[in-house]
Structures are given as structure tokens and as C-alpha cells.
Design brief:
The complex is a heterodimer of chains A (115) and B (113). With 115 residues, chain A is mostly beta strands. Helices cover 0% and strands 55% of the residues of chain A. Chain A has no helices and 11 strands. Chain A is globular. In chain B, strands 2, 4, 5, 9, 10 and 11 form a 6-stranded mixed sheet that branches. In chain B, strands 1-3-8-7-6 form a 5-stranded antiparallel sheet, with no helix packed on it. Chain B has a single domain (5-112), classed as Immunoglobulins (Immunoglobulin-like, Sandwich), CATH 2.60.40.10. Chain B has strands at residues 5-7, 10-14, 19-24, 31-37, 43-50, 55-58, 61-66, 71-76, 85-92, 102-103, 107-112. The chains are: A mainly beta (115), B mainly beta (113). Chain A binds chain B through residues 4, 31, 33, 35, 40-43, 45, 48, 50, 55-56, 90, 92, 94-97, 100-109, and chain B through 2, 30-31, 33, 35, 37, 40-45, 48, 50, 86, 88, 90, 92, 96-103, 105-106, 108.
């Protein structure tokens, strides 16, 4: 069984469109994340959700909005796509709380190409 | 700038040799973790070392941590072709849990048969 699954794996779209990437984890973790990996492989955290509350929101444009219907899901919605949004987006999850060490479990990534 | 920075950026060795990658960071940490990313795949957690530990082993992996120098190294012994991947270090801030996990840019390791 896939622990963290995200769809779609590939997404090609035109500038200005709106798109969503879905993520689900079956690990029972409390915290989920979205990371962006650029063409140089640099990983930058975008959001994290703990018990349906946003707890990190790095300096990402407000065109990006995370949505978590429950603690097993964290979807990423992107409005008005721009060329610079082209990247691989990774969903991840972890336990949280005292004593947990912060190990992340990643999905396989969603490669977004904006034309 | 990011917390962890790996060195070298790329490393190519022959199968069977040992591979060493280094990571430097800037601020105090709770723990430091190493991840592997195969081409086109997600990151996979390899090993974690806490700030009060100096060395840790897991199979062919050996990690060291020097908090005075704010650096860590990952040694892969007896490398195999399947070890070809990018390796990232990530640091956790005190009290931060995974919320404070920040990644370096990675070392791309190529194992030549």
C-alpha cells in the first residue's frame, strides 16, 4: 500500500489556468506538507497542516492555496498559473508532538509544466 | 538561505568504493536527517542523528555529527550501482519537530559499474 500518494504525477497546462494536486496519506500522521523542488533540486517548504490548521506558510504567492478536508488529505490548488510555477511538487507527512523527531514520508511527486 | 548545504554537489565513483558526502548547517539543531532521492522519485528517509549523538550506523551507512563545527557527513561503504541518487541532509530546529525541517541542495552521487 502506498503510504503517501499524490495525483496527478504529471500535469502540463497553459499559463493562466487553475489546477489542483491531490495528496492522501494512510499513515495516520497528524501533519502534512507541500514542498516545491525546482530545476536545481532545491526543496522549499510551502505549507504544512497540523490537525487541519495551517502552521507554516512560507513566502509563497497567494495564488497557491492548500486545502485539507481531513487530516489524511492535503490538496494544493494553484490559480492563474505562471511559467515560474513549473516544478515538481511533493506532498509529505509526519507525526507531530512531543518526542516525535520530524521524519518525513514523501509522495512520488507531481511534475507541473506551465507552457 | 537554506539551513543545510551539502558538499560536494556531485560525486562520481566506481562501484565498490566508499562515498562520503558532507553537510554544513548554520543554527542549533534538534536532529539532522539524511534522505535519498532516486531520479524521478520522492525522497526516502535514510537515517537520523540527534544533536547529542556523534555517530550512527545503519547497514552500509555511517553518519557523523559534529555540533561544534555544525557539520555532518554521510558515508556509504561498498557502493553499488543502485546507490546512484541524490542525497539530501535536513535539519530539525530545537522544538520544531518536522515543522522546522529544511533541506540542502543535495549531492548527486553516481556509481559507475
Amino acid at each position: 500500500d502506498t503510504a503517501v500518494s499524490q495525483t496527478p504525477k504529471y500535469l502540463v497546462t497553459q499559463m493562466g489556468n487553475d489546477k489542483s494536486i491531490k495528496c492522501e496519506q494512510n499513515l495516520g500522521h497528524d501533519t502534512m506538507y507541500w514542498y516545491k523542488q525546482d530545476s536545481k533540486k532545491f526543496l522549499k517548504i510551502m505549507f504544512s497542516y497540523n490537525n487541519k490548521e495551517l502552521i507554516i506558510n512560507e513566502t509563497v504567492p497567494n495564488r497557491f492555496s492548500p486545502k485539507s478536508p481531513d487530516k489524511a488529505h492535503l490538496n494544493l490548488h494553484i490559480n492563474s498559473l505562471e511559467l515560474g510555477d513549473s516544478a515538481v511538487y511533493f506532498c509529505a507527512s509526519s507525526r507531530s508532538g512531543t518526542g516525535h523527531t520530524g521524519e518525513l514520508f514523501f509522495g512520488e511527486g507531481s511534475r507541473l509544466t506551465v507552457l | 538561505s537554506q539551513q543545510g548545504e551539502e558538499d560536494p554537489q556531485a560525486l562520481s565513483i566506481q562501484e565498490g568504493e566508499n562515498a562520503t558526502m558532507n553537510c554544513s548547517y548554520k543554527t542549533s539543531i534538534n536532529n539532522l536527517q539524511w534522505y535519498r532521492q532516486n531520479s524521478g522519485r520522492g525522497l526516502v528517509h535514510l537515517i537520523l542523528i540527534r544533536s547529542n549523538e556523534r555517530e550512527k550506523h545503519s547497514g552500509r551507512l555511517r553518519v557523523t555529527l559534529d555540533t561544534s563545527k555544525k557539520s555532518s557527513s554521510l558515508l556509504i561503504t561498498a557502493s553499488r550501482a543502485a546507490d546512484t541518487a541524490s542525497y539530501f541532509c535536513a535539519t530539525v530546529f530545537p522544538g520544531g519537530g518536522a515543522d522546522g525541517l529544511t533541506f540542502g541542495k543535495g549531492t548527486h552521487l553516481i556509481i559507475q559499474p
